[in-house]
Amino acid sequence: MPPSLPDLCADLRAEHEDLDGLVATLPDDGWKRPTPAEGWSIRDQIGHLAFFDDAARTALVDPQAFDAHLEEFRTDPVAAMERTVASGRELSVDDLLEWWRRAREELLAALDGLDPDTRIPWYGPPMGARSFVSARLMETWAHGQDVVDALGARRPATHRLRHIAEIGMRTRGWSYIVRGMEPPEADIRVELAAPGGETWEWGDPAAENRVRGDALDFCLVVIQRRHVDDTALEVSGPLAEEWMSIAQAFAGGPGEGRKAGEFAR
After folding, report:
1. Are residues 25 and 124 in the same domain?
2. What is the pTM of this model?
3. Using CA atoms, how far apart are residues 60 and 164, in angstroms rounded to an integer?
């Protein structure tokens, strides 16, 4: 049974708060530290999240204003993406933190009491409310990983990885489409060791192509924060190997991901 919208929002809030705890006490120089995303500092990662949390709130409360904003992205996507970090670079650290905190609280407030069947406009096709919140959680966790890596920190795996793993499974076909490739029809069996000790499973148990391992490793691969070779995932079968080499759970153009050997296991 899928999680309720309030439960998803609670998980999104928890993801916000975990990342906030990592950056809130950083000295000003710490915000300038480069992350594995080329050209992006920790400041840029948080500014990017603030920008899109603001955009998400706008999509909920003023769809017409969001459509006008979306047209800018369609006209010049490269310049528009640069603007997602430019605003944060113009702010003091305190003002940037205030912006992000305000944006994410207003987003959660706009989601409170929303009909789960609501379709919300976004940068691709409109999304159902649950998928919309899951996507915000995934993006927060993904950019949070860039911050974690920049700081050389560690963060515990939580049950919230389930939402990201689910998106990773649902976007298998998208990983091909975004590269102009035909998605294969054959099933892939995925078995992941969850943080709580249980096993998360998808796909036909008899499938020849399989991915098995830790849920954290799988999530890091599908959000392109780790190359599959830098994880302990067991990948067997040509289709499973191909998918793990191109997996992309997020929208936009084809991502380059991380290079093999960039992170030790």
Report:
1. yes
2. 0.95
3. 22
